[in-house]
TrEMBL record:
<dbReference type="GO" id="GO:0006508">
    <property type="term" value="P:proteolysis"/>
</dbReference>
<feature type="domain" description="NlpC/P60">
    <location>
        <begin position="24"/>
        <end position="136"/>
    </location>
</feature>
<dbReference type="Pfam" id="PF00877">
    <property type="entry name" value="NLPC_P60"/>
</dbReference>
<keyword id="KW-0788">Thiol protease</keyword>
<dbReference type="InterPro" id="IPR051794">
    <property type="entry name" value="PG_Endopeptidase_C40"/>
</dbReference>
<dbReference type="GO" id="GO:0008234">
    <property type="term" value="F:cysteine-type peptidase activity"/>
</dbReference>
<protein>
    <recommendedName>
        <fullName>NlpC/P60 domain-containing protein</fullName>
    </recommendedName>
</protein>
<keyword id="KW-0378">Hydrolase</keyword>
<dbReference type="InterPro" id="IPR000064">
    <property type="entry name" value="NLP_P60_dom"/>
</dbReference>
<dbReference type="InterPro" id="IPR038765">
    <property type="entry name" value="Papain-like_cys_pep_sf"/>
</dbReference>
<keyword id="KW-0645">Protease</keyword>
<comment type="similarity">
    <text>Belongs to the peptidase C40 family.</text>
</comment>
Length: 136
């Protein structure tokens, strides 16, 4: 049986860290790149466009900008600086207990939600989250 990870032949996060696709970092650029992966299926442990889990998705997108993150929502939350929701911009990270994704503006999250679903934008469903900005 072929898994999503085995079927992907493009660059990995490690490849992008060795040679970033986007040498210039901005939150709007990060969010624009992340949007391109809407529809990619959720795969537990996935970290390529063949299938992402939540932190694998964040890790893969930020790697394209030369930013190394762990494959862990907790670790990704610890890698940045907490900011007020009022200051959040698309491209910032939404950190929840055991889950994360990209802030999509207007109370929405762009994320790899769960098995059987695909990367998508949806309203943030809980009040138990915080926003992290990388690069500050």
């Amino acid at each position: 049986m072929t898994t999503y990870a085995e079927s992907f032949t493009g660059p990995s996060a490690a490849d992008y860290l060795a040679s970033s696709a986007y040498p210039s970092f901005s939150l709007s650029s990060v969010y624009s790149v992340a949007l391109q992966y809407q529809g990619v299926p959720y795969v537990y442990g996935g970290a390529t466009p063949a299938g992402f889990d939540c932190s694998g998705f964040v890790m893969y997108v930020y790697a394209q900008f030369g930013i190394s993150l762990p494959h862990s929502s907790t670790g990704q939350g610890a890698a940045g600086t907490r900011i007020d929701l009022a200051d959040a911009q698309p491209g910032d990270l939404v950190i929840m207990d055991g889950h994360d994704g990209f802030y999509a503006g207007n109370g929405n999250i762009l994320h790899a939600p769960y098995e059987g679903a695909a990367v998508r934008v949806q309203p943030i469903w809980t009040a138990d989250y915080y926003i992290v900005r990388l690069g500050i």
